[in-house]
Amino acid sequence: MTEKGRRDFCIECRKETEYLLQKRDIVKIIRDKEYIFGITVAICAECGKEMSVPGLIDKNVQEIDEQYRAAEGLVSMDDIEKLMKIYKIGKAPLSLALGFGEVTIPRYLEGQIPSKEYSDIVKAALASPAYMKRKLMENRKKMTDAAYKKAVEAANSIESLFSVSEKMLSVIASVFEKLEEVTPLMLQKLLYFIQGIYSALYGKPIFTEDCRAWIHGPVYPEVYDLFRDFKYNPIDDARFALLEGAEDVLTDEEKKVIDLVVNTFGIYGGKVLEKITHNETPWKEARKGYGDSIPSSEILPKKKIMKYYIVVNQKYAIDTEAGLRTYIQDMLDF
Which of 21, 27, 24 has its CA nearest to residue 7? Predict the structure, then answer.
């Protein structure tokens, strides 16, 4: 891939020429191990030779650093910065909290490569508020009262925020990984469809949380509370790092259903998905006696949702994208 319109001095042509940015693979030996890295190079548009362009060496260093860390499964500087934001803690206090030397995290943020052991500790803290709390308590005496108190309060807040089941978090993480941007209303409906379709196909719910018949369709209150405190696009929130990798625990059957829902229902916005749920029996029955503007906390029983989608499956074959698309269109034409 190339970019045009850039100019600099070419030592081969002995004049200023246009150059193109291209990707090139290089081989480097690091700690007696061979790696192939893709770096950006500048190519003279006239003679085809590589040019030395200001800022490119720094870019190459960054590219190699990121690719090396990814290859070795090492924590990135971005991950460390997210950890600091999540727990409202500075560089030196974070080092002490994790049981490192006071200058370890500052050095990592300057570009030093962490050991696998220390990298795994940072990753564990980023993935689990409970683990971070444990590290804070273990190293309490090394920290100032103010830094400790602030970090523990943040950990308690995160822990209560992420109070939904591990399976629910895994499904949410998978949905966001596949769709990138999901509004809260859209997420609620996608979770409902995933629950219904999975239970119909495999005879059991995918997660334990109960759905409720709110005015705007099925809602999982725990998930509503979880995302109420996030930015409009939750994936931009540093706390979303806590979900990274969560989808790895999903089974093949669970992944299949999530893919089915994302590839069909996932192409619509929240209001369209709301219309579909409003035309379905479980929500309509749970809302009987409630007006259009009257709040309700009526539970949509998992068994009723499963029973409904078993019938839907018999008619539409919802284990296929084609069947689901037909079902969606019928619901929208209802």
Answer: 21
Cβ pair 261, 194 in contact under 8 A = yes
179 lies in the same domain as 304: yes
* Tokens standing for residue 206: 């995918």
Residues 215 and 235 in one domain: yes
250-279 average pLDDT score? 96
Structural domains counted in the chain: 3
Indicate the residue among 72, 106, 125 that finishes a domain: 72
41-55, 166-180, 258-272: least confident range: 166-180
Predicted local confidence at residue 129, as pLDDT: 86
Q: Which two tokens stand for residue 83?
A: 């950890």
3-state SS assignment for residue 199: helix
In a domain, 180, yes or no: yes
Query: Which domain-ending residue is among 106, 129, 161?
Result: 161
User: Rounded to whole angstroms, how far apart are CA atoms 133 and 298?
Assistant: 36
Q: What angle do CA 281, 166, 233 make, to 5 degrees?
A: 75
* 1: in domain: no
Does this model's pTM top 0.90? no
Task: Give residues with Cβ within 8 angstroms of 285, minimum separation 6.
Answer: 304
CA distance 299 to 219: 10
The mean-pLDDT minimum among 129-138, 162-171, 264-273 falls in 162-171
Domain that includes residue 311, residue range: 166-332
Could you tell me which of 253, 257, 251 has the C-alpha nearest to residue 320? 257
Backbone angles phi, psi at 35, to 5 degrees: -130, 150
